[in-house]
Amino acid sequence: MNHIDEKTEFRPILMIHGNKDRLVPFQQSVLLYEKLKETHKTAEFYCLDGADHGGDAFFDQKVLDIVENFLCTYC
């Protein structure tokens, strides 16, 4: 996050994070997303309410549709 600025080039980023993640703090993704938007990067961020790190919630059809839509839009 400390290396992101207006000049840093990125491909579009999709972030999906469970707000009950016990491995990676959810707030880290929030801060990263805010930094990406602040520096005018293309980024989408989705919170999976109640989801831990990985698991079935990430393979829900709604999440798969989000991923498919993102890939169709930016790839």
SSE arrangement:
Elements lengths: L12 E6 L7 H13 L4 E6 L12 H14 L1
Protein architecture, described:
The protein is an alpha+beta fold. Helix content is 36%, strand content 16%. It has a two-stranded parallel ribbon. α1 links the parallel β1 (13-18) and β2 (43-48). It is flat and about 35 Å long. The two termini are 24 Å apart.
Give the helix proportion (percent range). 25-40%
Oligomer: single chain
Kindly report the average pLDDT value.
Answer: 97
Q: How would you write the strand order of the largest sheet? A: 1-2
Q: Which sheet architecture does the biggest sheet show?
A: 2 strands, parallel
Indicate the overall shape. Answer: flat
Q: How many strand elements?
A: 2
Key features?
75 residues, alpha+beta, two-stranded parallel ribbon, 16% strand
Short structural description:
With 75 residues, this protein is α+β, with helices and mostly antiparallel strands. The protein has helices at residues 26-38, 61-74, and strands at residues 13-18, 43-48. The protein is flat.
